[in-house]
Amino acid sequence: MLKTVEITTKKRIEFIDVTSIVRQAVTESSVRDGICVVYVPHTTCGITINEHADPDVVRDIIYQLEKIVPESGSYNHIEGNSDAHIKASMIGSSESIIISDSKLMLGVWQGIFLCEFDGPRKRYLYIKTLEG
Amino acid sequence: MLKTVEITTKKRIEFIDVTSIVRQAVTESSVRDGICVVYVPHTTCGITINEHADPDVVRDIIYQLEKIVPESGSYNHIEGNSDAHIKASMIGSSESIIISDSKLMLGVWQGIFLCEFDGPRKRYLYIKTLEG
Amino acid sequence: MLKTVEITTKKRIEFIDVTSIVRQAVTESSVRDGICVVYVPHTTCGITINEHADPDVVRDIIYQLEKIVPESGSYNHIEGNSDAHIKASMIGSSESIIISDSKLMLGVWQGIFLCEFDGPRKRYLYIKTLEG
To answer: How far apart (Å, rounded) are the C-alpha atoms in residues A103 and B68?
Structure first.
């Protein structure tokens, strides 16, 4: 099953916790054992899995990504959002999570995030489940 | 279906746009709905998805990766290409893209790139399609 | 098939070569052609594929990751392991490898590593194989 979800981001850089959205898509699908691919069809967004208990973890990831890839630099791309493209390639456009016994096999502290690097914008999230 | 494609790179660092090659492999396969895994069997290459409209985006990604992981550093690996190995682990060896209605679900601006970090060389690209 | 393997790490930062463990899981499964998803259910670990012939490659990857994301920084997360969370998001929680003719299609120099960024600890590795 493929589900497309619309997400509205509110800041330039922001990680949106989409864990419950992905869990619901897995429940809606008839997949009992398989995998779930979470994908963003954008070039200035990424998908990451990390702690969603303490919001300071996401704050620290964003802080350090901004340090490694500053908003301003000797970039050529005329739209002025090169840092967002670079961060997207460092984080990656998708994550694959295992489904077992109809459940997403996330660790206790793991959450799934859509990483917005050039918001605020309307974004799409693709959630694909495969039996196997 | 699994397809292996040979790619000849021409520079030390270079991102090769393989989008049309991957699209063709998806068309050749009988997969209607499923996923496509694009994989490089090399330790100094990566696969990334990013904008392929303006070549300056790739130029800027390469520029910043070189800044974060310089060619010369306090590296021990005797072959002298440690930066290429480090960049490969930062970018990742594969990407998974969703197939729906026999089409690769890339975003409007997204292209798939083989990232060469230690060329020029002859490289291989594996394209695997799964129905599901 | 889904296999869970327990891994005990011994240092704060350490890459554990799990290639033979993953190969064995693929052999045990009945998968002839498909994919293998290797996943860590932890927020301070990652999975990477890189050279496992010369241990200096891993040493150099760790060295540079520590430079890019130092252990101490202006981090807010109270547990003091923010660098480990940041490194985990940069490396990613999983890798997908193609299975063909019952074999894992790794390149000649490629090995699969569980990347410990906040050890020593007891960790879990999920190995999922899908036919297709």
So the answer is: 38
Question: How far is it, in rounded angstroms, from Cα A98 to Cα B111?
Answer: 26
- Tokens at B1, concatenated: 């279906």
- Please state the ipTM of this predicted complex: 0.96
The rounded distance, in Å, linking the Cα atoms of A54 and A59 is 9
If you compute the radius of gyration of chain C from its CA atoms, what whole number of angstroms results?
A: 15
A70 min Cα distance to partner chain C (Å): 13
Query: Cβ–Cβ of A57/C43 closer than 8 Å?
Result: yes
| Encoded tokens for C132 | 């297709």
pTM of the predicted protein model: 0.98
Give, in degrees to the nearest 5, the angle at Cα A104 between A99 and A109.
140
To the nearest whole Å, the CA of A91 is away from the closest chain B CA by 8
Separation of alpha carbons A43 and A22, rounded Å:
21
Domains and CATH numbers, chain A: 2-131 (2.60.120.460)
**Which residue does chain B place closest to A70, by CA atoms?**
B64
Tens digits of per-residue pLDDT, B89-124?
Answer: 999 999 999 999 999 999 999 999 999 999 999 999
To the nearest whole angstrom, how far is the Cα of B80 from the nearest Cα of chain A?
A: 23
Which chains, if any, share at least 3 CB pairs under 8 A with chain A?
A: B, C
Q: How many residues does chain C have?
A: 132
What is the spatial distance between Cα A99 and Cα B100, in angstroms, rounded to a whole number?
20
Please judge whether A56 and C69 are an interchain contact, meaning their C-beta atoms are less than 8 angstroms apart. Answer: no
